[in-house]
Amino acid sequence: MKDTIQAVQVQDNLRLNFLPKYFGKYFFKAEPQIYSTLNKLASEYHGGYWNFFELSNGGFYMAPESDKSFLIYVQSNGYADCLSRDAAGIVSCLFVINQLCWENPDDEKMIEQYYLLRDYASEHYEANAIFAAID
């Protein structure tokens, strides 16, 4: 039987190394792209603090700290629905990691990170909505 993938929020004193650890040389580019991607997908998102999460399978993601959900509209596939802040963060991260994979097709680490996060997303309580958004 396969173990459920667990997400653990990164402690404040470990945040500084989080982005370089997972994005490597792309972290200066990836971080603002994640924020701007959610800004494009959710008209009511206007910035704010994000939580960082490490996954028990070696993956990661980021999600805005918010107690509300976001109406997500993906122009490229017509998806429109509300997602929790957690699912919205996962979608934004998947879009950006995917883009990095296309731009750097020989970067096995980024490709692996994409699939590790997809594996976690497949177990998320909003899995169907996440996959509909990124389809």
Account of the 3D structure:
With 135 residues, the protein is of the alpha+beta class. 50% of the residues lie in helices and 18% in strands. The protein has helices at 15-23, 27-41, 85-103, 108-123, 127-134, and strands at residues 7-9, 50-55, 60-64, 70-74, 79-83. The protein has a three-stranded antiparallel sheet. The chain has a two-stranded antiparallel sheet with strand order 4-5. The radius of gyration is 14 Å and the shape is globular. The model has no long low-confidence stretch (mean pLDDT 95).
Major sheet: arrangement of strands: 1-2-3
Detail the poorly predicted runs.
Answer: none
- What is the SS-derived class? alpha+beta
What's the multimeric state?
A: single chain
Give the termini distance in whole angstroms: 28 Å
Mean pLDDT: 95
Query: Main sheet?
Result: 3 strands, antiparallel
* Proportion of helical residues: 40-55%
Computed CA radius of gyration, to the nearest angstrom? 14 Å
Tell me, briefly, the overall form: globular
Annotation field: number of helices: 5
Order of helices and strands: EHHEEEEHHH
